[in-house]
Amino acid sequence: MTKNLLTLPAAILVGVCLLWSSCSRAPSSSIISLSGATMGTVYHVKVVSPSSSKKRVAKLRDTLLEGFESVNSSMSHYRADSRISVFNRLGAGVTQTISGGFLDVMKMSFDLYRSTGGAFDITVGPLVRLWGFTNADSRVRDAPPTPDAIAKVLNNVGMNKLVLGPRGELSKKAEGVELDLSAIAKGYAVDETAQRLRASGYDNFMVEIGGEVCTSGKNAGGEDWIIGIAEPSHGAMLREKIIKRLILGNACLATSGNYENRIEADGNFYSHILDPKTGQPVSNGITSVSVIAPSCARADGAATAITVMGPKEGYLWALRQPDLEALIIARSPEGDLTEFTTPGLTRFLPSTERGDSPKIGL
Length: 362
Ligand code: ADP
Ligand code: MG
Prior knowledge:
By secondary structure, the protein is of the alpha+beta class. The chain is built from eight helices and 18 strands. It has a domain of 90 residues: Orthogonal Bundle (T-fold), CATH 1.10.3980.10. Helices cover 27% and strands 26% of the residues. Bound molecules: adenosine-5'-diphosphate and magnesium ion.
């Protein structure tokens, strides 16, 4: 059995690549593969379909693009006309009523904020800007922001400065508070796409946006979709260095990593994931966190939150969550990688890779 490895741009995709078997297909089904750019990254969708007629493929592409558009038009702060951008421009105490996916994501974000003691915080936008992560052209700067500049910006950071009413009435308590859903919206877009595919009658598919992925049912050969997690280091995906293979079934996987999206200042590297309390990029030994959950938005947000909490606190938090499993990879000062996996993750491993069974060579 040969395997194909789908490698995705390392700078965008953090630590995840996808494997699937290229076994013989069931004669009655074909696979439609679609990919392209969205949300500042790349998507790959594979759908098992009774036919791959031009008409069907075009309709499927429209379904995906409509889903991306609905997420971007509400949750992309890069778009000036999006609902989130409208909110970001509002003054203190002015209410905007939100609904649908935007409201669901806000509720999920509040849950994560509260349960992580503020490690997950979608008001980090002004900090992200201060550190320079929004400027793709200047990833090297002379020095990190000064403590004074950070302290000033922190005045506008904190989800306790937001108010969300029972019917989606959203307002800010202080001028200058902004929303940045980058840590959770990609996962939500995967959920939205999966939901639209199901509504169109497809049950067997794989949806991936920038490394966040959901699978459903089986592949065209009637086999499980297999997702590979690449070693968290530069170029690992290109070297096909897979450290874990997972069978998600009808679940989702999201990964946050500290080693791809970063800036350099003073000769040091800084992660794009920030500690909302200190205003500093996280530097706690974690190099990547992968989370499995029924919802990709939840997995996406949780992976970012665990990265902020660090290997120990993050692991203990993951253990307390009934709906998710986590794989945390930390690097010691000497450069050795250590894996921490929640016990329930075992059930997502191929049977040959559980317990003492001999491992399949990759
Ligand atoms: P990626 O986008 O690489 O998959 P994440 O899902 O972890 O990574 O999202 C990181 C983005 O989330 C950052 O670029 C920033 O915009 C935002 N962010 C940074 N720190 C936090 C935090 N503590 N809580 C919520 N969002 C954050
Ligand atoms: Mg995330």
